Amino acid sequence: MQQPHESPPPPPASARVLVVDDDPTVSEVVAGYLDRAGYVVDRADDGPTALTRAAAHWPDLVVLDLMLPGMDGLEVCRRMRGHGPVPVIMLTARGDEDDRILGLEVGADDYVTKPFSPRELVLRVESVLRRSRPATGARVLGAAGLFLDPGARRATKDGNELALTLREFDLLAFFLRHPGRAFGREDLMHEVWGWEFGDLSTVTVHVRRLRGKVEDDPARPRLIRTVWGVGYRFEPGPDREPGPDREGE
Q1: Beta strand pairing status for 110-114 and 141-143?
Q2: What's the rounded mean pLDDT across residues 102-129?
Q3: Whole-number Å distance between alpha carbons of 238 and 146
Q4: Does 7 have pLDDT greater than 80?
């Protein structure tokens, strides 16, 4: 499992984490570690219960198993996101790359593969929550009709609010801070995710999702350009002609 490259501060006392897993042993161990780390922890063993618990006490983050009875984790994630933004860490079986990509496609901010170390999961929770907190004193960023306010965690395009996940917001902020510069997927994973190593398809999926929200034509992107053999470049110039960019490279 990938580890954050920096040690985060302790969580605020009010941070609430909802743990959703139908395996009582996994749920109990994860909840115990999070409780000792200072979080308020709610637990659910299926999708409907998770939605009920979230409605009663909206969590600051959800640790969500992909394989749940009845309503799977993908549907739970979709429904929660329909009610409001919340960071989601998806739990998946080791080696199920398609499932991990599906989790990222529906908006999961992070994932860990089973079996995992509970201590490392706590570090991942702390890292995601730290990045989700508003940045105090950060300047508003803008280019090509896009405006992003890190302090308010709010982004707009041509005056219309963008519904961005935590990672999409951070990725867009990074691109806006570095216009015209090409970054490899390894660079983006380090700078945006805080990981020293990991599955690079995570970056590919998030770029594709972000293009779907900021590009006029995501199939022919003008803003987030593929740099062949390198990675991606944010190009805000309005006079640029789109190239035949395709995902997966």
Answers
A1: unpaired
A2: 81
A3: 12
A4: no
